[in-house]
Design brief:
This protein is α+β, with helices and mostly antiparallel strands. The protein has 4 domains: about 240 residues, Arp2/3 complex 21 kDa subunit ARPC3; about 170 residues, GAF domain (Beta-Lactamase, 2-Layer Sandwich), CATH 3.30.450.40; about 150 residues, Alpha-Beta Plaits; about 250 residues, EAL domain (TIM Barrel, Alpha-Beta Barrel). The protein has 30 helices and 26 strands. Strands 16-17-19-20-21-22-23-24 form an 8-stranded mixed beta barrel, surrounded by 4 helices. It has a 5-stranded antiparallel sheet with strand order 5-4-8-7-6, sandwiched between helices. A 5-stranded mixed sheet has the order 10-11-9-14-15, sandwiched between helices. The longest helix is centred in the N-terminal third of the chain and has 47 residues. It is rod-shaped, with a radius of gyration of 48 Å. About 40% of the residues are buried. This is Diguanylate cyclase (GGDEF) domain-containing protein. It comes from Saccharomonospora azurea NA-128. Keywords: Membrane, Transmembrane, Transmembrane helix. It holds the Pfam family GAF.
Length: about 900
């Protein structure tokens, strides 16, 4: 008769295990429930067991009185023969799995039962069946439900004889058992067992749908009817024709073979479903890991939540009908194995140190079927430690790296233990799990790399954005800090990027040690860091910012050198009214960056205030409006004359850009030029000034005047390989000779990348253009580089010229620059000349050209023309290449 095993009934429909209810004696899943609930379920099932056993005994006694035993010593062999038949029927059972989660065993017990109804008294059949059933349970090491199953055995046989007796009386032949009565009684036995199992499901508070019960009962009746019919037919044929027993035996064997074939077919189908289920579970869990947001500490590594692996282990256990499934998984290369146990608890001694576990040292990646009778002492000891008689073990490997191991302990559904199908199924599942583990680790690595800075290991900007999203929503008083190392670019230039990177890593460690492991910390770009202080008051944020600045400003040891450092911190609090509406991390970082930029006024830790936003908004508006400003004439060019010493001839002018903004008024070049340059618009600015200046020179040439013009260059112009071509095109378009154009560049611009700037400068020099080094004396170039540069002029920085009259050091510097320039064959220009004393000193030193307020301020084009007419006199002059009029100052 059918016996349910595993998750026979409600696991199919409701996902709830009932493996402790049916007659298989399968282990309950109560041990994985909370202890209080498990104890309550166990108490209820004990009462139910006592009720079933009591009812079975009472029913057997009552039926025995109704059908008293009238034995015969000549039939003593019937009892032992029936017991052997029942025992054989139990052991030769066929495990049939219609769907994943539905499993019962066709045990053929209906055949000896129907024969027993026809040939033996009730008491004999009852004793034989109970003895065979209990013996089978003990052989399968199922001891926790023996009393319940014994009561079920009593109810099965009692109900069978009761129904058979009633049918026999109804047919009018109470003295003997007709075949119809025997058939009805035989079909009653499995139904009685099923009803008891369903009642046990309710006692254990498991849910089961009515449709599931009906379908299960229908299957049981069909199989019971086939088995009973075979047994009844065989009995009737042999009793009438004893010589026909070979035919009956052949039919019985054919039926058994049909059952086995059907079982194998369904098992293959079920195994495919199980593989699909496991693959889908792993895929879904991988997607959940990918979609799961990071923790506040920035944990984007392998997911350590084992719930999904527990579900997978339960599915494998259901499929193999194992007493226990153990998954030992290495979810992170730097972490020990994590253990997932589904089914019976592991003994305490088996949960210790796994480093020397022989099962974890199994070679290869194929399934090993290990039994307690193994000759290998270490493996036998490992099985004893696990409390298992047989184990299917398969290592999970990827590229010879151990990812974990899957263990299946003690099959429950078959007395003979695990078979070849179980080995094949577990091997295939293990292959899927190994691939899934490897893919999850790869996915975790990719996610970690996508959200972490590879140099410092801290969060990057996207990682910081994701980690801080939830804390910013939950906390009403958070603070975002931005920390910049000012010395980073200097270290990169002086020692190289390798040492600068080491300094960054050291700075990251200092910040992490100061803030602790649970504070979100990120490296944004370059030497900029960001910190989120959740649930933090502004006063505490100020203190932490000062602490960070102090830690980061301490000297760094770089290759046995002590590098002095400096750090500035800007922070913004979400509690401020101006930040309440836009508390997203990008807006807060932008405002913290404004505070960092404001620290350059001297204060090293600064909080954001709304006025900072107005400053940067002004810069943003200027950059976005710059093209329009040029088109509308808001941007103009002013000119400051340069005069020869001592002749006082006007040799040229310097073109200086000015912007009269309709909203902001006159904007200082020191404000808008760096913003335009940072926005990548310096090419537009240079082209505008160059064309405007060359147009002015062209008109002077048309008037017979040879006045040169000087235009300032940006470092970005020196990095543009097409710049010399555009300058040549402008000179040709306006018809201006190259010697009337001077291009000025600073020492620092050239020295940022001399290898790239030198070819550009040589091309410009080949066009006949004069090249001048501006602000000479304030940079860090060497004489060797100065000799390599194809320059024609050096301009003494005005800071030295201002101080000549009062500072002997400045006077000495100016004299040295004049002598150095002349020794290299260069024209020396002094800018910032504002007093007669300075002019006289420069003239006495032999300086060639003077420029400054003493001569003239920068003038608009119309005012320059007026100045030239009022302050100069025209005379004929001649050079080596051309002649024309020159202008000389009147005084």
């Amino acid at each position: 008769m059918p016996e349910a095993y595993g998750d026979a009934a409600d696991a199919a429909e409701a996902g709830t295990a009932t493996d402790d209810v049916p007659r298989s004696g399968g282990r309950s899943t109560d041990d994985v429930q909370p202890s209080a609930e498990a104890r309550a379920d166990e108490r209820r099932f004990r009462f139910y067991t006592a009720a079933v056993l009591t009812l079975g005994i009472a029913a057997a006694v009552a039926l025995s009185a109704w059908l008293p035993f009238h034995g015969s010593v000549h039939l003593w062999w019937i009892g032992p023969l029936l017991a052997v038949a029942f025992l054989g029927a139990e052991q030769l059972g066929v495990n049939v799995d219609v769907r994943s989660g539905i499993s019962w065993t066709i045990s053929f017990t209906e055949i000896p039962l129907v024969i027993g109804l026809l040939v033996a008294p009730f008491e004999v059949v009852l004793a034989a069946h109970v003895l065979a059933g209990v013996t089978t349970l003990l052989a399968r090491r199922v001891t926790g439900r023996v009393l319940y199953n014994a009561g079920a055995f009593l109810m099965e046989v009692t109900s069978a004889f009761a129904v058979a007796g009633l049918v026999s009386q109804a047919l009018g032949s109470p003295a003997e058992m007709p075949w119809l009565a025997a058939l009805a009684g035989t079909l009653t036995a499995p139904l009685a067992s099923t009803l008891l199992a369903m009642a046990a499901v309710r006692v254990l508070r498991r849910r089961m749908r009515i449709g599931t019960v009906v379908r299960l009962a229908g299957r049981i009746l069909v199989v019971g009817f086939v088995n009973a019919s075979v047994g009844l037919t065989g009995y009737l044929v042999i009793s009438k024709t004893p010589e026909a027993w070979p035919i009956v035996l052949a039919v019985s064997l054919g039926l058994a073979a049909l059952y086995w074939a059907y079982s194998d077919l369904l098992r293959e189908q079920r195994d495919m479903e199980a593989l699909t289920d496991v693959s889908l579970m792993v895929a879904r869990s991988g997607q959940q890991v990918a979609a799961r947001p990071a923790s506040r500490t920035g944990d984007f590594g392998v997911d350590v939540d084992l719930d999904e692996w527990t579900t997978i282990a339960e599915r494998i256990r259901d499929q193999l009908a194992a007493a226990r499934i153990v998954l030992r998984l290495r979810l992170d290369p730097d972490e020990p194995l994590r253990t997932v146990v589904v089914g019976d608890d592991l003994p305490r001694e088996s949960q210790g140190d796994l480093d020397d576990d022989p099962l974890l040292r199994l070679p290869g990646s194929h399934v090993r079927h290990l039994r307690i009778t193994e000759t290998n002492t270490r493996i036998r000891t490992a099985l004893l430690d696990r409390g298992a008689h047989e184990v299917l073990a398969v290592p999970l490997r990827s590229a010879n790296q151990l990812l974990g191991i899957v263990e299946a302990h003690d099959r429950l559904s078959r007395w003979r233990g695990f078979g070849k199908y179980d080995v094949q199924l577990l091997g295939t599942m293990a292959s899927h799990l190994a691939t899934a583990l490897d893919n999850r680790r790869l996915l975790a690595t990719l996610r970690h790399d996508a959200y972490h800075d590879p140099l410092t290991g801290l969060l990057n900007r996207p990682g910081f954005r994701q980690v801080t999203a939830e804390p910013l929503r939950e906390s009403e008083n958070s603070v975002v800090l931005r920390v910049d190392l000012d010395v980073f670019s200097t270290v990169s230039d002086a020692l190289g990027y390798t040492w600068a990177d080491r300094m960054l890593m050291a700075a990251g460690r200092r910040m992490r040690d100061t803030l602790g492991a649970h504070v979100p910390l990120a490296r944004l770009e370059g030497a900029s860091f960001a910190v989120l202080l959740a649930d933090c008051e502004v006063e505490d944020a100020q203190r932490i910012a000062q602490l960070l600045r102090g830690q980061l400003s301490a000297p760094y040891t770089v290759d046995r050198l002590m590098v002095e450092a400096n750090a500035v911190v800007g922070y913004v609090a979400t509690t401020a009214p101006e930040n309440a509406e836009r508390a997203d991390v990008d807006s807060l970082l932008q405002r913290a960056d404004m505070a960092v930029r404001a620290t350059r006024s001297g204060e090293e830790v600064k909080s954001y205030v709304p006025s900072m936003g107005q400053i940067f908004l002004r810069r943003f508006q200027m950059v976005t409006q710059f093209r329009q400003a040029i088109d509308e004439g808001q941007v103009t060019v002013h000119y400051q004359p340069k005069v020869a010493l001592p002749g006082k001839q006007v040799l040229g002018v310097e073109a200086l850009v000015r912007w009269q903004h309709p909203e902001f008024g006159r904007v200082d070049p020191d404000e808008f030029v760096p913003a335009v340059e940072a926005a990548g618009l310096v090419g537009l600015l240079t082209s505008f000034v160059l064309d405007t200046a060359l147009d002015r020179v062209r008109r002077w040439l048309d008037d017979g005047l040879r006045i040169s013009v000087a235009v300032n260059l940006s470092v970005r112009n020196l990095a543009d390989a097409e710049f010399p071509t555009r300058v040549a095109e402008s000179l040709e378009r306006f018809g201006v000779p190259g010697e009337l154009l001077t291009l000025e560049l600073t020492e620092s611009d050239v020295m940022q990348d001399p290898g790239r700037a030198l070819p550009i400068l040589r091309e410009l020099s080949d066009l006949g253009i004069e090249l001048a080094v501006d602000d000479f004396g304030t940079g860090y170039s060497s004489l060797a580089y100065l000799r390599q540069l194809p320059v024609d002029q050096v301009k003494i920085d005005k800071s030295f010229v201002f101080g000549m009259g009062t500072d002997l050091g400045d006077l000495a510097v100016v004299r040295s620059i004049v002598e150095l320039g002349h020794s290299l064959g260069l024209t020396v220009v002094a800018e910032g000349v504002e007093e007669d004393l300075a002019r006289d000193q420069l003239e006495a030193m032999g300086c060639d050209v003077a420029q400054g307020y003493l001569i003239s301020r920068p003038l608009a084009e119309d005012r320059l023309e007026a100045w030239l007419q009022a302050r100069t006199v025209r005379s004929l002059g001649r050079t080596s290449e051309s002649s024309g009029a020159v202008l000389t100052l009147l005084t």
